[in-house]
């Protein structure tokens, strides 16, 4: 029997912060009051990252500005994020899951699938196994999760979303019509706001209506994505590319600057610091990226991005920076920027490399330099080596939110 479980931490950042607070004897537990995890308003990271049930009852939503959240709830408790703690708690969860099966696929910092197929006690009583797993996580790690149970990854993911918190739900193929199809179409995995809007214009408002639509019509309006979501609405398995993106999507970083960036030199300094972070993470995992890109958000909250394929896969900070800087010069129209990001894709462990008569020696020298710098930072701390350009800079030489903590996380 094929048996997949999806484990999703309930309000992860807030739950993990509460765990640390309880261990330190803090009272009350922020899960029991109207509270949120929120970024620095001074540095313009002032949005809601996670919310408690009480905060949700006040109408507060993840992603909204803190000033707006405070209007809804004047007594709101705001706690700053602790990314090192979040990585630690995430690692604890993944280690626990590995005790059940080596087939663990982490999708994000707070969710993962486990494949329990062929494991007798789980297949014999899937729901009971999921309840025992959920309760063990709460008992030993101190936070709650939802567990979804089904025969494939998509249905297990959808099951874990049905009702929260601290719940187990099944969504087997025979339950699709009763449990899945009545839900709003925007609840389906990979149906975002834009796609939902297009579906609504076609008269499709529920997952059941999507499942019953001609897939050819959906493909006409939404290209391949239309046929994919039609398959998901009918309980089909996730496309393999989803799991590939999950493995490599962390090789990116972005930062919201405290003051708008208005000149090229400052922008390039920010890009260099982001490339330091991304390059270090690629090298730590033994990966090289074939695509690099930049993403910006201006003061009017307009997002734009540009990417390019590389002649050779790389994890070199300098090469990532050269391409990112070139892309940025092509992309930026001079409007003040509040956010800059660098991202990579098609990252994999290189099996072989095509040699270039003129570039090979230069690249090998750069790889030795990057490796030496990584080793020094690993031994003496991240700030033990930095580029002279950052000595008197207001920017950190390795920027970004979770980047620093991800670079320190232990190998499983």
Can you give me a brief rundown of this structure?
The chain is globular and about 60 Å long. Helix content is 43%, strand content 20%.
Question: Can you lay out the helices and strands and say which pair or pack?
Answer:
Blueprint: E1 4-9, H1 12-23, E2 35-38, E3 48-51, H2 53-57, H3 66-72, E4 77-79, H4 83-98, E5 104-108, E6 111-115, H5 120-124, H6 126-141, E7 145-150, H7 153-160, E8 168-170, H8 176-180, H9 193-201, H10 207-211, H11 215-233, H12 240-248, E9 252-261, H13 264-284, E10 288-298, E11 303-314, H14 317-331, E12 337-348, H15 360-380, H16 403-408
Protein architecture, described:
- The chain has 412 residues and is of the alpha+beta class.
- 43% of the residues lie in helices and 20% in strands.
- The chain contains 16 helices and twelve strands.
- The strands form three sheets. A five-stranded mixed sheet has the order 5-6-1-7-8. The chain has a four-stranded antiparallel sheet with strand order 9-12-10-11, covered by helices on one side.
- Strand 10 and strand 11 form a beta hairpin.
- The two termini are 27 Å apart.
- The C terminus is likely disordered.
């Amino acid at each position: 029997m094929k048996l997949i479980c999806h484990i999703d931490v309930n309000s992860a950042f807030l739950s993990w912060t509460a765990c640390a607070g309880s261990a330190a004897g803090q009272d009350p537990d922020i899960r029991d009051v109207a509270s949120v995890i929120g970024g620095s308003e001074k540095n313009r990271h002032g949005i809601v990252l996670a919310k408690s049930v009480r905060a949700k009852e006040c109408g507060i939503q993840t992603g909204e500005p803190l000033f707006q959240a405070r209007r809804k709830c004047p007594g709101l408790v705001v706690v700053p994020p602790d990314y090192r703690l979040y990585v630690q708690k995430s690692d604890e969860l993944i280690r626990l899951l590995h005790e059940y099966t080596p087939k663990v696929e982490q999708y994000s910092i707070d969710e993962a699938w486990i494949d329990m197929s062929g494991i007798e006690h789980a297949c014999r009583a899937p729901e009971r196994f999921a309840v025992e797993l959920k309760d063990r996580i709460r008992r030993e790690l101190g936070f709650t999760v939802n567990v979804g149970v089904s025969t494939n990854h998509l249905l297990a993911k959808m099951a874990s979303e049905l009702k929260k918190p601290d719940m187990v739900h099944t969504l087997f193929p025979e339950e699709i019509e009763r449990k899945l199809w009545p839900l709003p179409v925007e609840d389906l995995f990979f149906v975002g706001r834009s796609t939902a809007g297009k579906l609504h214009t076609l008269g499709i408002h529920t997952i059941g209506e999507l499942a019953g639509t001609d897939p050819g019509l959906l493909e006409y309006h939404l290209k391949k994505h239309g046929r994919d979501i039609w398959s998901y609405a009918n309980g089909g398995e996730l496309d393999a590319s989803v799991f590939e993106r999950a493995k490599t999507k962390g090789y990116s970083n972005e930062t919201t600057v405290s003051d708008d960036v208005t000149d090229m030199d400052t922008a390039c300094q920010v890009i260099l610091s982001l490339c330091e972070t991304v390059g270090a993470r690629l090298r730590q995992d033994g990966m090289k990226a074939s695509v690099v890109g930049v993403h910006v958000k201006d003061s009017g909250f307009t997002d734009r991005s540009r990417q390019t394929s590389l002649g050779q896969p790389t994890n070199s900070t300098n090469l990532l920076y050269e391409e990112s800087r070139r892309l940025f010069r092509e992309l930026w129209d001079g409007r003040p920027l509040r956010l800059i990001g660098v991202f990579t894709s098609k990252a994999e462990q290189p099996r072989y490399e095509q040699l270039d008569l003129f570039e090979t020696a230069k690249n090998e020298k750069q790889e030795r330099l990057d490796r030496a710098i990584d080793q020094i930072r690993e031994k003496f701390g991240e700030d033990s080596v930095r580029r002279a350009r950052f000595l008197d800079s207001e920017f950190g030489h390795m920027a970004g939110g979770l980047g620093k903590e991800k670079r320190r996380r232990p190998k499983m």
